[in-house]
Amino acid sequence: MAPTTSEHIHCLIIGSGPAGYTAAIYAARAGLNPVMYQGLQPGGQLTITNDVENFPGYPDGVMGPEMMEDLKKQAERFGTDIRYGIATAVDFEAHPRRITIDEKLELTADTVIIATGASAKWLGLPSEQRLNGSGVSACAVCDGFFYRGKDVAIVGAGDTAAEEATYLANLCSKVYMIVRKGEMKASKIMQKRVLDNPKIEVLWNTITDEILGEHAVEAVRVKNVVEGTTRDLAVEGFFVAIGHEPNSKIFQPYLHHDEQGYLKTIPGTSKTNVDGVFACGDVQDYTYRQAVTAAGTGCMAALDAERYLAALGD
């Protein structure tokens, strides 16, 4: 059964999190009557983050889910219509733009703000998911501070893993870097920084077999795939740095993107190559991926949408 059009929306926000909620706050205050569909994970990645200590305005830190609820309430206070639902298809060649929600509800919109974020890639271990937020993290910059003076492990072999291992070495007593092959994919300069750092021990040809601990990470069991031997590393933090995947698949036929799928925006703006369609947050940010930078681009997207509509004479 084909989707049926239910309503026309002035400013549609697809996705939530710091970018989406900030866009909603600005769009609502500008009188754009924004409607937000929160997506598969309302509130984004921060809903699975415990302590957030680096977001301005929270001197004592805040729980990730609590901060997202604060942003949501602020967006609602100014009149944002926040709904549950997932964008499952779009047609950005149509005028106005067409968006299908949950494969059955078709909307039209004058402007669209994409804030669908990116999802961390995981190893797929049950213990990894069980201890996520209790010693397991996909963001060293976000959570490394909690492991100051402690031993940690990080898995990955690319530039991000090398950069995060170096970052952790500035805070932690010892960093084990788990590399699946006998070489890294990271650039030569990043490899040199890792190999020259006395706090980092690279475990070559090694995979993660299990993360140990009942309520928090206590150790990680690794296996050398060449020798066939296993050992337990006593660590309190386990960081996964094998990449992120932007949630951009349905937009890629229409919007310019890089080889990883991150949406491209005109530098200094949130504008995509399609008029009236804007992107903010981690879906277009492969460099910083922080809540505060996502919020900043959410603000930009709302302002860009407001100016776009004003130029149309709205």
UniProtKB/TrEMBL annotation:
Superkingdom of origin organism: Bacteria
EC number of the protein: 1.8.1.9
Entry's family note: Belongs to the class-II pyridine nucleotide-disulfide oxidoreductase family.
Subunit structure: Homodimer.
Any one GO cellular component localisation term in the record: cytoplasm
Keywords annotated in UniProt: FAD, Flavoprotein, Oxidoreductase, Redox-active center
Catalysed reaction equations from the record: [thioredoxin]-dithiol + NADP(+) = [thioredoxin]-disulfide + NADPH + H(+)
Protein name: Thioredoxin reductase
Organism: Hymenobacter actinosclerus
Domain FAD/NAD(P)-binding: start-end pairs: 10-298
SUPFAM superfamilies to which the protein is assigned, alphabetical: FAD/NAD(P)-binding domain
One of the GO BP terms on file: removal of superoxide radicals
Alphabetical list of InterPro entries matching this protein: FAD/NAD-bd_sf (IPR036188), FAD/NAD-binding_dom (IPR023753), Ferredoxin-NADP_redctase_2 (IPR050097), Thioredox_Rdtase (IPR005982)
Cofactor: FAD
Gene Ontology terms, MF aspect: thioredoxin-disulfide reductase (NADPH) activity
